[in-house]
Amino acid sequence: MFIEQFKHIYFRLPIPARLILTILFVMFLFGWIIHLVEPKQFPTFFDGIWWAIVTGSTVGYGDYVPLSTAGRIIGILLILSGGGVITFYIAMFSAFTVKHEQDLSEGRVEYHGKNHIIFVGWNERTKQLIDLTLQHNKKTDIILIDQSLSRISYQHIPIHFIHGDATDDSILEKANITEASRVVITADISKDEKKTDHYTILTSVAVRGNNKDVPIIVEILSTNQIENALRAGANTIIRPNDFMSSLLYHELFKTKSKPFETILQLLASNQFHHFVLPENLENMPFISVLNEVKKNNYLLIGIIRGDNWKLNPPADFILEKKDILVTIESW
């Protein structure tokens, strides 16, 4: 019964662990045998183990040497068996290390850390976000989930890559979604806007289903999908098209005024953010809400009510439930 239980546990262990146990067993066995066969040359059990390890690893210090024929036969058997096991272990360990590095680059390794940031989607903005994050938060681990990439070299980009579809619960589990500090879902502007937004919303649903508290920042391309993204669990909505359209319009009709160009450059260093009006700010005037969000380094420039945009409304304009705040965050 004991042997069957041991076999059941032993063969369920990873190969490196099994090899280490096998090496320890062989070294202890030969150390015990040589101690019994030549007690004068190997006065203690530990001396026998020391000789077995040194001999089996082919180091051969020569401080303990069997003198009898039986002892030398034991030494031959140890070299043939123990030496082969140790050599096989070293080869397996090297292969395991190379395999782990390859799996890490190809996104097959699970992440087990905590308080990390998960980025979904690989594009130019994601690269810039990762660079900024690593620049300002060097101790923060970054996890990238993407299904279009085949591999990412950790040496070139120090992030943990997971290959797969972020709408799949198993992929999110690989990224340890339950322990993440926040999730950023970027949009692929090279694809159809509607399909891209649908994927973003579906990913938000999957993330929220696995972690009900994690802040989710999403990039939405179509205005009519903002409310759906909020329903899906997104906390902050970013609309890059609005900002770029505004810049292009002003560039189209700009004057040669240097101050105006300076303002555009200042705006370009920020990002538009959209998020639903918090309950504690409902039915409050615009000026009061502006002061409140400013405490979190957000500049309130307007709201979205239904399909209507209201930029820079009067100070006494009352904000209502489900209004979406349009803000700019400064670094």
Automatic annotation (TrEMBL):
Superkingdom of this protein's organism: Bacteria
Membrane topology, record value: Multi-pass membrane protein
Main localization category: membrane
Compartment annotation: Cell membrane
InterPro entries, per database record: K_chnl_dom, NAD(P)-bd_dom_sf, RCK_N, Trk_Ktr_HKT_K-transport
Example GO biological process: monoatomic ion transmembrane transport
Stretches that traverse the bilayer: 15-37, 49-67, 73-98
Matching Gene3D superfamilies: 1.10.287.70, NAD(P)-binding Rossmann-like Domain
Keyword check for Thylakoid: no
Domain RCK N-terminal: 114-239
PROSITE patterns (alphabetical): RCK_N (PS51201)
Keyword Iron in record: no
Keywords attached to this entry: Ion channel, Ion transport, Membrane, Transmembrane, Transmembrane helix, Transport
Protein name stated in the entry: Potassium channel family protein
The species this protein was found in: Ornithinibacillus salinisoli
